[in-house]
Known about the structure:
34% of the residues lie in helices and 28% in strands. By secondary structure, it is an alpha/beta fold.
Amino acid sequence: xxxxxxxxxxxxxxxxxxxxxxxxxxxxxxxxxxxxxxxxxxxxxxxxxxxxxxxxxxxxxxxxxxxxxxxxxxxxxxxxxxxxxxxxxxxxxxxxxxxxxxxxxxxxxxxxxxxxxxxxxxxxxxxxxxxxxxxxxxxxxxxxxxxxxxxxxxxxxxxxxxxxxxxxxxxxxxxxxxxxxxxxxxxxxxxxxxxxxxxxxxxxxxxxxxxxxxxxxxxxxxxxxxxxxxxxxxxxxxxxxxxxxxxxxxxxxxxxxxxxxxxxxxxxxxxxxxxxxxxxxxxxxxxxxxxxxxxxxxxxxxxxxxxxxxx
Length: 311
């Protein structure tokens, strides 16, 4: 006989693209029940809530007072801190979408509120749960990393948010770099360009980590097709991953003629968002630190803001 954990009552705040994804995935996780969806737009809130048998609310007060065990905050960045702090102070565990907040001061408020109330605060850096990133981490385990190169480019998003590519896209890759190296970013050399938007839509970011690894991120909204690639050079091998197809290839054993041996690295099929939410639920149930802590979110944001000259 399988024993079930007590059911965790979940709410989702912000019924945009990410919020809808979270709502869909939550209904597919054991011992979790999606009970409330919050969006200030009543039609949007009701549409998503109805699809998953949840209750729609249109104010932050109603959402905070809904008797939730846990909440996903997928609102615009500028609302992350106030809503998350209100939830944490009410005793609700919070998974906040990346970036953790709009400012470092806001991020610290959230971290402090989680500590003061003994609640889990996790940041939704979903690429941490991409099986391809996991496969790369395993492939380079124990090797000395020389450099990391990440390309995350594509066309202009259909609706422009309030942020440019550094906050919207590069925050994913800053987190991947910190995760793969287990080191912090010491130096940043950003090159930014603005062509069609109010904020930067092209960025070339170079980093040096505390442990000496160098890293480079190419990101933009001016490429007609999507590319998401990760390349890691170590003393012994070169590992290439496509973060969309999840294909990972390892090059090793260079011969005198310059040729290499190659092998595919297994990356297990899994939906990263589901793994992320399951990991959050696990941290709530066990009291273990979440996979991506508030401090991780703060450091990722701090590096991104330094790239923008705002840190």
